[in-house]
């Protein structure tokens, strides 16, 4: 850590910000919480990050013991970045900050995008495990070209990119999904105004809003 980036305080928060508080650092961590990524995968998921900044942040996070590189045999010499155990400990921090920030989202700004990794983490962030005890349900959430498979089973969530093989409910939505999860509109209103479309039992959309809430 360079002296210019140091806060000059013997404090856990200050030290944590020195490691993960630089611009883009926590978004890199967010994507790696979904799973290991190649450099090109990270670049695709963060299209506005300058390549030199991405390289610098990865180097800094690696030096801090947050990220490690693995060389895969196939394709030959392919490098994959993943979180260390120390880096994975940032998950509750990322989830708490994401949940807090979601309350200020409002409508999407011009040119803001949604990525599969950001949506997977959004669903993990908003999942209310205490409301899912004894519940088993499969959702497929579609937002434009993105499809996510969300399986809830007795208080646990498994979220992954791609369609569900046997969804109990398919939800097609755009930015209206945020208003729905924030309870600014009811499931019935969202379906009626066409901002959300469902295939399956519409009552499961009410359950979705109970399980995933901002």
Radius of gyration: 19 Å
Question: Which band does the percent of strand residues land in?
Answer: 15-25%
* Number of E-type strands: 8
- Any idea of the CATH topology of the largest domain? Nonspecific Lipid-transfer Protein, Chain A
The separation of the N and C termini measures 35 Å
CATH superfamily of the largest domain: SCP2 sterol-binding domain
Query: What is the C-level CATH assignment of the largest domain?
Result: Alpha Beta
**Total number of distinct structural domains:** 2
CATH arch. level architecture of the largest domain: 2-Layer Sandwich
Contiguous low-pLDDT stretches (5 residues minimum) are none
What overall form do the CA principal axes indicate?
globular
Q: What count of helical segments does DSSP give?
A: 10
Summing up helix and strand content along with how strands pair, one would put the structural category as: alpha+beta
Let me know the average pLDDT: 93
Spell out the helices and strands N to C: HHEHHEEHHHEEEEHHEH
Largest sheet: 5 strands, mixed
Q: Strand order, biggest sheet?
A: 6-5-4-7-8
Helix content: 40-55%
């Amino acid at each position: 850590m360079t002296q210019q980036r140091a806060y000059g305080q013997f404090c856990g928060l200050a030290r944590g910000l020195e490691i993960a508080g630089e611009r883009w650092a926590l978004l890199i961590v967010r994507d790696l919480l979904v799973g290991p990524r190649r450099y090109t995968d990270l670049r695709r998921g963060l299209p506005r990050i300058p390549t030199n900044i991405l390289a610098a942040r990865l180097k800094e996070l690696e030096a801090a013991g947050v990220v490690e590189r693995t060389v895969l045999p196939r394709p030959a010499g392919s490098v994959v970045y993943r979180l260390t155990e120390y880096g994975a400990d940032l998950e509750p921090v990322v989830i708490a900050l994401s949940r807090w920030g979601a309350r200020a989202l409002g409508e999407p700004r011009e040119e803001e995008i949604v990525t599969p990794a950001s949506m997977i983490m959004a669903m993990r962030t908003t999942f209310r495990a205490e409301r899912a005890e004894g519940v088993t349900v499969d959702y497929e959430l579609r937002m434009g070209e993105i499809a996510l498979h969300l399986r809830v089973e007795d208080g646990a969530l498994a979220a992954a990119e791609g369609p569900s093989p046997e969804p109990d409910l398919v939800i097609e939505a755009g930015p209206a999904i945020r208003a729905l999860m924030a309870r600014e509109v009811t499931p019935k209103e969202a379906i009626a105004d066409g901002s959300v479309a469902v295939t399956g039992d519409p009552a499961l959309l009410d359950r979705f809003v109970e399980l995933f809430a901002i």
